[in-house]
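Note to self: keep these together.
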Amino acid sequence: MMLSETWFMEGYIDFELQKYRLLAYLQEVNQYFTEHKLYPQLGDIVFHYNNLVAFKEHKKLIQDSFPKQLSNVNLQKLELVYEEMLQDNAIMQELENITQYALAQMKPTLDNGAELYEQIEKQLRIEPVGIMPLYKNEGYVLVRYGNYSEVKAYNYTITLFENQNDKYRGIRLSYIDTWQNSIVNTYESIKRDIIKAIRTLPNPAVFSVEYPLPVPLDETLLPVAKRALVKQIGIA
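Structure:
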């Protein structure tokens, strides 16, 4: 179950109705966290929590508060709805009750997700493989986790994004292949295999990523590893 960007002000604005919608959403998110699945649920609940805080502080629904896929037309409509609601004290009071309740209910779930993220990030081990080139915004990542002998190789690309307030880095992973980790297939030998097979980067940056426990790869390990890798490359 997913909540829309403006779930708390859509349809019939009623505390009990929105309460049960919210609780059903949180139940599902908590179930994912129990299974050690972080994404996309953690990013989603962070967005909704911050959006409610912004609304509670009576800030306008501006573009930075919503996903990039929302068009200017949709944003204008939302701002018109917001302005109309400001004129109705009863509606605004009901929305205040909804947001106050939602923030209190979301906080423990958000904290659980953040705690799980931090636990995984602390045990994550990222090491350079071989000599690092000066250019590190593109290269390869070798991932091994749990008791699995497999080493999964990915190409990574880091891109710089800018908006009117800040700059931030994004990272994209593309799966290449899987090797069996052994005396023969070391990280160095896998690196050589990749360079021979993919000749676009003759001297690429290569990092190994290791995690000691078996966690969901796509929903947890890779998203955490991507952010950790961006941090490491940013301060290298």
